[in-house]
């Protein structure tokens, strides 16, 4: 029997995380409990504009820096 599950390893804010399947960026944010409307994302060293998030597939070796937007005064 062939194992069809693919595990990917990515770095998020300097910490290594494993996922059992390939994910789009919004799916990854949802899985780690972050609200996509309230974060900014640096993807492999580049700020990734929100319009490209849904077409960005996360792969092994990717590096993400995720910053939460905080309001207040």
From TrEMBL:
Gene3D superfamilies: 3.10.20.30. It comes from Hyella patelloides LEGE 07179. This is Thiamine biosynthesis protein ThiS. Signal peptide: none annotated. NCBIfam families: thiS. It comes from the Bacteria.
